[in-house]
Design a protein that fits this description.
single chain; alpha+beta; Heat Shock Protein 90
Length: 376
């Protein structure tokens, strides 16, 4: 199976980019076809080449956040088009301004983009003005409306793509939340059943055993074997109840790595890499750490669009440091959820001298948790 060397965003919108190339080619041909080889020909050809190279660089970059270089290249495109319009005898070069308008939605807000298009149109009007205001105005306004159309079409496409990404992130968050609620409800139900068995049935069986023991010494000899058999049955039943309670409580000894792996497995296109797993003594600390890690995964999905997580742990004496790294985009500290999420984690770990911090790095973010381990 052949794999295209083009980036994914170009393969997906190949028709749009191809139409832009054809438009540039036609405009270039119409502007140069009637020119003789000379300085004017090569200057105009150089202008068209500079425009397309700048256009292609921006298209191939596919930056989520517009870079300064892209904005500089866009400025080069605008200046080049205005120069081509100045020396254009066929009135076809202004169509290139529509290609400029299609690049604005990924770099500017709607208000900023409209200001850029108005500036281009104003400069175009000054260049095209021939002493007749009405004819020059209507000539320029046509290209301005074409710019608005091109800008609106691309803005709609980008808005739909962002909506799909947000919907996918919300879906992943819902899956993570559902897993967390399911695990929490199962744990609470097991805890409730074990307590009921221990507190109610266990105590009643103990009382029954004591009553049978007393009764065995007060009845006649002919009933003592029967009481002894019932006493032994009560003790066996009590032993079985205690064994069940013990097993159910042992199930509560959660494994952080397994639980986190199960959570990640529920999320589409997400992976977990474990560099080192923690060795924790306290059951309560395990539970609180699991809640913190689950919330860290949920926040990374919601705000950072992450899909690859790395768990690394380091323990020295009773001090434990857990790092959960992801490949998501950096979450700015101005984000309200950033502060409230960390505050909630610190409150969960306050009994264990816990400190939680979110560290930005080149490849994403790292949730760093430092706690003091102990025995329950």
């Amino acid at each position: 199976m052949l794999i295209s060397p083009l980036p994914e965003h170009l393969r997906k919108n190949w028709l749009l980019h191809f139409s832009g190339f054809i438009t540039w080619s036609v405009i270039c041909y119409l502007s140069l076809v009637n020119l003789n080889l000379g300085i004017a020909f090569f200057l105009k050809l150089s202008g068209f080449i500079v425009f397309y190279l700048s256009f292609a660089c921006i298209i191939f970059s596919d930056k989520k956040v517009p870079s300064t270089l892209n904005k500089i290249l866009l400025g080069v495109e605008i200046i080049t088009v205005l120069l081509l319009i100045t020396f254009d005898k066929h009135n076809v070069a202004p169509i290139l301004s529509v290609l400029i308008a299609t690049q604005l939605p990924s770099m500017f807000t709607r208000r900023q983009a409209i200001l850029v298009m108005v500036l281009i149109t104003f400069c175009h009007f000054i260049i095209a003005y021939d002493g007749y205001f009405v004819s020059s105005f209507f000539h320029v306004i046509i290209y301005f409306m074409l710019q608005i159309f091109g800008f609106s079409a691309i803005e709609t496409i980008l808005r739909e793509e962002r909506a799909k990404e947000e919907l996918a992130a919300i879906n992943q968050e819902l899956l993570a939340t559902r897993f967390m609620l399911k695990a929490s409800s199962q744990k609470q139900e097991r805890l409730r059943i074990s307590r009921d068995l221990h507190d109610a049935i266990g105590h009643q069986l103990t009382a029954l055993s004591l009553n049978l023991e007393v009764a065995k010494h007060k009845v006649s000899e002919e009933f003592k074997p029967l009481l002894q058999e019932n006493l032994q049955l009560a003790k066996t039943l009590l032993s079985n109840v205690r064994q069940v309670v013990k097993e159910m409580r042992e199930e509560e000894q959660i494994d952080l790595v397994s639980s986190l792996q199960n959570l990640i497995n529920q999320l589409p296109n997400c992976q977990l890499q474990v560099i080192s797993s923690p060795d924790i003594n306290s059951l309560q600390l395990k539970q609180q750490l699991m809640f913190c890690l689950q919330e860290g995964v949920s926040n990374a999905l919601r705000h950072g669009k992450a899909n690859l997580f790395t768990l690394a742990c380091e323990k020295m004496s009773n001090s434990l440091v857990i790092n959960l790294s992801d490949n998501g985009t950096v979450i700015t500290k101005n984000n309200e959820n950033f502060g409230s999420g960390l505050a909630g984690m610190n409150e969960r770990l306050i009994d264990f001298s816990g400190k939680v911090a979110l560290i930005d790095n080149e490849s994403g973010c790292t949730l760093k948790i430092q706690v003091e381990d102990c025995y329950d």
